[in-house]
């Protein structure tokens, strides 16, 4: 234990460099110290060090601990356990910790959280537990959380924080500042003050720096800006994120169908949304659904099957194209050896074009004004690279099999397939997008089907015709 | 023209719903109105409507206009042209507009911009133009911009804004507020006030909401928080973004090697970084480098070649594996028909695993604590899905060629290749990461090489052995 004795002070500095190693993961020495403290039920150490960590740091520690250590740590920390850390961990870890706690304790903890964090924890619980917890909350708290939970997943209403600062338009800057000084019940942090009428209808908003720059006797209605970026509670979170990005917002009012202020979306929430949406695109392009690292083997297997089934069908389709030319292959086995090269190069080139297209559509960089130009560009790129690689593979194949005609045929097939790859790579996502489908989901399988079918049929077809087989 | 006459008022509302259509692109009717005004040199309309757009909206309009219209619009808008809109457009569009303007005019405009926007525009210019523009700026402005430009691309120093509010520790909250009320030279917007010593060394920071909640007679040093998230100017922007995300920061101090405050990184800049980095990962996974939609055909072709060359080598490698079994194929052409199915299914499964792994590494969700568990999980998933698809393809192939043994062989090869895909999909990115390479760049080609080689060799090898060919 001696070598661990130096750690406590370091950890009490609460400096990130102390709990994280160079690789960005929690240091094993720190984990060992925490593990030992849990085993010794050293409440003093745990509360004074682990209890002081930032919620995200505590989240990392929880994830790195063993399952049985987690429950013990939460129990030992008692009131010092920061429930907000549960918003930072994997769903499986969160559920495990929450399930182990009595609903009374969760209800108590939830009251301390900002409403967006509370919703984040409550939304994954089953209906029964959730109702039991909500029933134990004070009336206003319960109403607010129920309202957030009533909005569909991935909407602004579900993501918003219901704590905000709102003042009437006739107040002065001085009154507003005095109100904030005297009121203990403000949100933990905020970057805007909203201006509302007696019916809670949103009139405007003022950034805090604006308040600080203005004389005390000025009325808030004179300095508020009209909130043209008020976000309907039912708006999809991705759309809300695009508005934040376009207009560089730090926070935005969320309004219900009667234009009444019901909450605030903060950039912290939006940063998470941006990450999630980019993540979703990457996973979808890779043929993976909404899976988490903590998912079980069975659920992971099952979630990946649909995509593999689709691929099986398209692979059988490509195989049956080859089957059409079995007599040709019988007479020249070199064709079977070379044909995957044509298909593979096409698949690769098609994936390149498709990736660029899917991204440009997601970020709205591609629209009706430049689609035509980009299609022409991709076709030209496909043709140029087709010619370049036709020459290369033509030489390789000709020399390998000592057969100049074979080199010529694979070269011609390569040009055809690279052009097909370029057109498929751009037109397939565009068409999917046009018909309201997410191009990230289905483009890859269609593009490689095109390049496989065109690759095999052009190469084997040209060979059959040229050599006059059959 | 009559039907366009209704637009001006709509546009003067400056409401986003007016310039954007349902598809999120700028409405063609709006563009036509702007185009007509440019053709008529209708300065009044342009300044009062287009000149009032948000910088991002003006950026979208510029991108949608024809090349010659852009230059005319900028000229007609004159002083009303918001140079910040240039930070919102594609690099090619920006360069086109900037190149058309005299350096004097750019120098004048740059002084009006926040320093981060100014740097964004200046960094792409060639050395000569940049020096000429900098030479025309006032001394302090020039020094600040030169300092930012002196930091490497993609660092915090290059991204930071050099305008900030800083006060000494002995000031009271009241003094600080009065200073902000009286000073006209504050940044356009800010969310923190920094506390510095006479040497400009950073002592702490205070969020604006904290200032507003505190009595006037309290000293700032009493309410400032120590800035443990001060960011060294040379830190990579991706690392800075991770700190923002982890600690939910709205802004952070940037310090030089002597701990002196040199600028501030804002969440607006960081949101752009997060987008860029996610984008980079997606493009790299798709085998595309750092390309833009506006790049020319030649530069696009050239940038995609390296990846295709690598793929050509690996495709030839796979082909030579097939070449080892040419005698076998000669005796049973069905093998040539079926072999791409085994390779394709493996490629797909491997890509799924690889995508999950690359993302988990990028978001630091995977680390030494869970790597072992995830490797075991992926191997199990590969085995389970291998068995599922082995049964399916075994039945299909057996029935298709009326040959039960062939079905058994492809089934066995499928299990082997799906297991290889799972292991390759996770171990290759892990190894690349371990050796300091970005797994997003090179994983895909290695993984599909593994699944092609294992797929072809296991299937053809098993067939050769089972049927006793050769």
UniProtKB/TrEMBL annotation, chains A, B:
Tagged with keyword Membrane: yes
A molecular function (GO) held by this record is: magnesium ion transmembrane transporter activity
Give the matching SUPFAM superfamilies.
Answer: CBS-domain pair (SSF54631), MgtE membrane domain-like (SSF161093), MgtE N-terminal domain-like (SSF158791)
Spans through the membrane = 305-325, 383-403, 409-432, 444-467
Q: How does it assemble?
A: Homodimer.
Q: What does this protein do?
A: Acts as a magnesium transporter.
Instruction: Provide the family line.
Output: Belongs to the SLC41A transporter family.
Name used for this protein in its record: Magnesium transporter MgtE
Q: Which gene encodes it?
A: mgtE
